[in-house]
Amino acid sequence: MGAQVTFEDRVWQVTGLAGGRVHMVAGDGDSACVLASALVAAPGFAVIGASAAPPVVPVLWEAVPLAAQERALAWLRHIREVETGLPGGPGSGTPRPEYNPQAFTLAQREASKARELAGLGWARVSRTTVQRMRLVYGRQGLWGLVDKRHLRGPSPTGRADERVVAAVLEALRRCRGRKKTTIRQVIELTEQIVADTHGPHQVRLPARSSLYRLVKALADPAEPPGSAARTATAAGRAGGPPAALRPAERVQVATASLPVGVVGEDGMPVVVAVTAALDQASGCVLAAVLHPEQDGPVELSVLLAEMAVPRPLRPGWPALLEQAHAGVPVRRLMSLPDRIEATASRPAAVPETLVLDRGPAGITSAHLTVCESLGISLEPAPPRAAGAASGALRTLQVLAGLFTRHAVAARPALTAGQQDRADEADEADGVYWSMPQLQDLLDEWITGVWHHRSQEQLRHPLLPRAGLTPKEMWQVLLGAAGRVPLPLAGQAYGELLPARRCAVTESGIRLGGRRYDDACLDEHRGRGDRFEVHHHPHDPRQVFIRLPDGRLHAVPWALGEHGLRPFDELLRRRTGTVLAHRAASGGTAAVEPGGLSVYDAEAEAGQW
User: Fold this and answer.
1) What is the pLDDT of residues 253-286, one digit of tens each?
2) What burial letters (b/e) apply to 159-168, b meaning 16+ CB within 10 Å?
3) 414-442 pLDDT per residue, tens
4) In 359-455, which ranges are E strands?
5) Which of 323, 347, 312 is CA-nearest to residue 447?
6) Dist CA 221 CA 216 (whole Å)
7) Which of 31, 250, 472, 573 might form a disulfide with 280, Cβ 3.0–4.6 angstroms?
8) CB of 87 within 8 A of CB of 78?
9) How many CB atoms lie within 10 A of CB 586?
10) CA distance 100 to 252
């Protein structure tokens, strides 16, 4: 009653306690009634003017000698009497007259306690001593009253001068590996080092017997003076990587092959790989880029753009997603509105450290500068035995295997006639994906399946037997870390992509055999100026051009005046033609691997 407390960032005065509830009133007249259990457990709750001393640790208390324990407990009762007037605390009786808080100040009560202790035979106790012990008790509790001298372990160097200890260590280092070195030679070298470092007769050296014990104490037990230097006869086992305890603290980059049929830009099948950035702490996939395996590693700037910029913030992303869903029917995991909502919550962040597995990402000096400006540290993956895979690579291989099953089940549907011919020719696997279509399918699968799939290595302390999903682990670690790693703005996506200089012609921008056009190019057509154009090497659906206003503008891939036949439909028609050709020839016709040697006549005419 009458106490002042802090609750919900406001100061309240307790006016009543009834039925387990605390009635309070604020300075502005507002009143509140809160359950006592909820009040004391509320964030930021505190009793004004009262400090809760931390409890003593039982293991440490047991190590204290009995005499020191009794001395600390005696100080505890004396300090309580000084503060409250009662040795047992409030409510334990009637205070003695000289310790009555209503009649004497705190300083007067401290002086009375000092006189009392001096009369009891306590040595060197003054009012300052009582005050110091009282303040220490307020900060550290009972543990602060313990005499710590009883807990100090013996020092191997005793009371030797630190300069002499440093000289002995230096002498042992110089004599390391010499088979005929004696302790006497180490002592003589120590004397020489002390004289050279601090001058003759400037440091008082202990007796030879003390120096002998000092050398024995500081020498490595496994390598005493006179022993041969130890050499490594075999490759030592490399220590594991440091544990990641925060989201985006350590992000591992790895590359794995993806056994899915993909058609390249030349119309021939290509072997595709996936380079992914995996958050070590949560298992979330921050970026996953498909690329032809023969093209080499993915540029580091492309990976940074994919992992650090959320997809909903990227210029033109909603239109590209709508275009992908409006293409040839595939077995989608979610509708367009559901996917937009799910993608908005997909983790994206600037990593603190990027761990590169055997150099899967192309790195240049410019990339290093970008990482330095973003505060990103780069480090190689720790070495491992031949043939062994890193944790990130194993995880990525599991991801690739599971996604391959999904891609086979969700491949573009054939017409009834094409499916019959495929069954007859036993070439159902001849149906191939385009690279943009498979990339879109991978992004959808990661968002809808991988991030919601339980993993054995992801555990919560309160649920040790239940594997968490990467998304759940990300949320748990956010609460444990107490901070959220921030992503980059949407404009940074185009800035991080590779750039080249291109002219704006009357028909738009020509890049990689494609034409890109938009209304923002109208006033710059045909002038002969070359502009900075940023492009994604593995996503040709749009580019970004920097116009005189200094900003990057998204320019989509133009489909031409008459419109291009969708790539997916062309794949189905070409695959069906190949299958029909094989079926008609009894399966003996010579075809290219993947069944793509017979081309669609309309495609040859330039419609694709």
Assistant:
1) 988 888 888 887 777 888 889 999 999 888 899 9
2) ebeebbbebb
3) 445 544 444 443 344 445 678 888 888 89
4) 361-362, 377-380, 433-434
5) 347
6) 9
7) 250
8) yes
9) 8
10) 66
Cα separations in angstroms, 519 against 298, 514, 516, 544: 31, 17, 11, 13
Answer whether 202's CB lies under 8 Å from 188's CB: no
> Strand (E) positions, 317-398?
353-356, 361-362, 377-380
The residue assigned the tokens 């990587």 is: 241
Identify which of 68-82, 84-98, 556-570 has the greatest average pLDDT.
68-82
SS3 605: helix
Does pTM top 0.85 for this prediction? no
Q: Position of tokens 């191997």?
A: 156
What average pLDDT does this structure show over 365-387? 72
Q: Which of 342, 289, 338, 343 minimizes the C-alpha distance to 312? A: 343
Contact 441, 410 (CB under 8 A): yes
Task: Determine what percent of the chain falls in helix, strand and coil, rounding each to the nearest 5.
Answer: 40, 20, 40
What tokens does 452 get? Answer: 């919601």
Structure-token pair, residue 159: 């009371």
Q: Which string of b and e fits 386-412 if b means at least 16 CB within 10 Å? A: eeeebbbbebbbebbeebeebbeebbb
pLDDT of 153 reads: 61
Rounded CA-CA distance 608/598 in Å is: 15
Question: Which tokens go with 606?
Answer: 């330039």
* CA–CA separation, 331 and 444 (whole Å): 11
Q: How many CA atoms lie within 13 A of 424 on its CB side?
A: 17
In this structure, the dihedral spanned by the alpha carbons of residues 579, 582, 587 and 588, taken in order and rounded to 10 degrees, is -150
